[in-house]
Predict the 3D structure of the following.
Amino acid sequence: MIGSTTARRRTAVILRGVIPALLAGALADDAAMAQGRGAGDVVTLRNGEIYQGVVAQEQFTMETPWGTVALPYGRVARLQVGRGRDAPDRLWTHDGSRFSGRLAERRVTVLRVLDPTLPVALDDITDIAFAPLRLPAAAAPAPDLFEMRNDDRFRGRLLTSDLMARTGDGLALVPRRGLRAIDLDSEGDDGPVRLRLSYNTPGRYGRGELMGGGLDIAVAHADTLTVAPHDLRTVQLGAAPGTGPALAGDLRPMRELRDTLRDGTPGPRMVVLRGGTFRQGSDEGVGDFDEHPALDVTLARPFAMALHPVTFEDYDRYCAATGVAPPDDSGWGRGARPVINVSWEEAQAYARWISERTGRRYRLPTEAEWEYAVRAGTATTFWWGEDPTGERANCAGCGGLWDGEKTAPVGRYRPNPFGLYDMAGNVFHWMADCYHDSMAGAPGDGTSREKAAGCGKRVIRGGAWSFPPKEMRSANKWRDFPSRHSDDTGFRLVRDMEENEE
């Protein structure tokens, strides 16, 4: 039952001896520090000054809304200090976790090689970037991944063995061992918590209302955390390690690639598509007028398409690096949700930024590339067949947890046969093409279609959370002004392949 597990104390593993030895080496000479720490830690102050050295701190203790977390120095990748007492401090770890709360340590000491030791009050610091230590291999990661409403995420083990839920058949105990994912949604802190249960059996889902209190979670370097259901967004049971969004199914029959940005962080996860010939549009008597006449299109070269739409986490990183104003999330949360309220021009600017940071050409997909990718070798109305129901997509009337209410975090529905997520529903995607009200004259090689007199509207594809199931059709298209911001429109990227990569 929920809340029935006895809290168990986990002793934090403190890397005693690592810090003193490291600091001694750092003070001895630059080479020693480089050997253990790379370029060292980078401390940015609120007055704009930047210092480099080694932060002399064995661990960081944080009070979170769910309990105390004590992270060893060697596991911390980044510290962001909240401005003012009401703004949370945030800690990121090298394995992709994030915790928000109040740090107990309010002063740090920075040891520098050629300059005096620098004591700094935490409130004078904006950010600390920690270089990775060369540590012994960590133990196998905890099996479950927890994503919170405040965009924190961490690995642990769900100790609550059974969930009490109210379903259409009444109250029921749902054993956790039969589940692979739990999605939770609620309005405020006092309203009912709705559940979407993804079972181990592919394609089997359940819905209901969670009954009971908090969920107990065992987390390394922490007491057992008791998390209120209203604070949880998703639990992925037995999730594979990684720093990206948790994805349902993780079926990826195609080859993947992932470039690295100049700062060493990973770029978008991309799926390499071989190209080929397919039928684009709809035959007469089927679909809308702007889908006619259907034509055969040949994509002569491979290209890579993003595994899922650009998320708020992705786009917020771009905003922080460039000073671009972050888009509004409509009150639904950021993190792994697809970015919305982004214009076509802003999507293009993001693609240029990723291209410049990776040295590869990223761009918006053409209509033909999109339809080839969403069909994934199928010729049916929807990529999964002819029936729009069955929780295949997030739309108004598709029967999902977020049905007609808001976006879902990316990857909550099974991927298409190419292994691509959210190709139908959740958000429309900006295309490179200018909108035409007929397929007549469309290029047969899959390139972008423009207008000589200028482009008043751009194509959007894929359907969205606020649209009915029929708009999830593979051939369906809509259009919008390229300067418009909408809570039902986002984007994903494609990447050109070099000849030596094909």
Remarks:
- The mean pLDDT is 84.
- DSSP finds five helices and 31 strands in the chain.
- The first helix runs from residue 18 to 28.
- Residues 18-129 form one domain.
